[in-house]
Amino acid sequence: MNFTDIIYDKADKVATVTFNRPEKLNAWTPKMGAEMREAIMDAERDSQIGAIVITGAGRAYCAGADMESLGQVASGRGTARVATEEDEWTKRQRPDYRTSYSWLLGLSKPVIGAINGACVGLGFTTCLYHDIRIASDRARMGLIFVQRGLAIEHGSSWMLPRIVGVARAMELAVTGRLVDAREALEMGLVNRVVPHDKLMDSARELARDIADKCSPLGVATAKRMIYQHLFTDLATGVREDDESMEMMSRSEDFKEGIRAFMEKRAPKFTGR
Q1: Are 181 and 190 a contacting pair, CB within 8 Å?
Q2: What pLDDT is recorded for position 98?
Q3: Stretch 101-117: mean pLDDT
Q4: CB atoms within 10 A of CB 89
Q5: What are phi and psi of 56, to 5 degrees?
Q6: Domain segments of the chain: what residues?
Q7: Are 10 and 47 a contacting pair, CB within 8 Å?
Q8: Would you state the CATH architecture of domain 6-211?
Q9: Which pLDDT band, with edges at 50, 70 and 90, does 69 fall under?
Q10: Cα–Cα distance measured from residue 229 to residue 104, given in angstroms and rounded to the nearest whole number
Q11: Which CATH architecture has domain 215-262?
Q12: Residue 19, helix vs strand vs coil
């Protein structure tokens, strides 16, 4: 795989995808999106990878769509629509997870966003589909679309209220204002804030902890159930959680987890 708009590496059971247009504050291009998907799907298929980290090179995570691309849309020479890649993996997912960036929710592996700087517009939208978000104390985040004559996009109106609540989502959507890392933490938009020079260490440490200490089958099941139950009632959630627990209790990972605890050693999970 030869990438130009991202950097992709795998080490210590963690795959890292870095948006790599620092001179443009990692402004989003269709090529960047395609490369990101190719890399992440490689990580999803790799049984040695337990978690995925996404970040940006330089001063920004992603400062939104490339303005040249937006100029083409404004002049009628382009489209703001994001094409969906209809591969076999996509076809097996829930309909909710087949479009735009919602396919990230259908991955079996957790995605950790390491928000290193400006995370704006399409960059903000993308990070809503990360399972966990860790922010540098230099991060600034916002939708800004209404300040460009646009409305929020790609399911932001569905995801954002579920992350920060309706009132805060409405304020961010209709003002387009940016919030700093501290305010993002207060509203629940990010899980934690760390010093800028500790960001990648913190994100990778969390990713390694998941990869080293947790059952891949358990992680995949937990992720699937949490997102799936955003669409169901409590009774369905209880029933399906109980069914998942029954299934997991017959797995090799469960047997290994009990053996490792009794033998006072680290478990060696296989995902079976």
Answers
A1: yes
A2: 66
A3: 94
A4: 15
A5: -125, 150
A6: 6-211, 215-262
A7: no
A8: Alpha-Beta Complex (3.90)
A9: low
A10: 16
A11: Orthogonal Bundle (1.10)
A12: strand
